[in-house]
């Protein structure tokens, strides 16, 4: 794997560094209430919210050399979500994904997560990769387990102060 991760391909996905150019592709996903079944307050209600979110993700590419990707199906080019890893204030990597509901259950989250783990380890393997998962979100728990993460129980997610299950690739050094 190279030192740049702005474009990564998997068997079925093209993962490209998120940018504000992706607002039109991503807003239908981030604004869809079905996409946010487990965290309805996270839903984007306007394009500016998606643009602001993408601006922050793009800034992390500049500062950290790794951030979230726009997820596209290789076969069709359809944008189906966003995800990858991004630094948290603790220095650890946050594993994240948000996929459109019509793709759920097809293994795309697992495929993306495997690539995200590999890139995080290649970029900086000295810190943990953590997936912060709501206890009620059984599908995300299964994805975390499939990619080899261990459930270290409830911890406070430093990104927003919410208590979630912390699935990580190593023993955690967080409160």
Notable characteristics:
8 strands, 29% helix, eight-stranded mixed sheet, 175 residues, alpha+beta, Aminopeptidase
Mean pLDDT: 93
Low-confidence stretches: none
CATH topology: Aminopeptidase
The appropriate CATH architecture is 3-Layer(aba) Sandwich
Query: Care to count the β-strands?
Result: 8
Number of helices: 4
Through-space gap between termini? 33 Å
Note the main sheet.
8 strands, mixed
Shape: globular
Classified by CATH, the class is: Alpha Beta
Multimerization status: single chain
The named CATH superfamily: Gcn5-related N-acetyltransferase (GNAT)
Cross-sheet strand order for the largest sheet: 1-2-3-4-5-6-8-7
- How large, in whole angstroms, is the Cα Rg? 15 Å
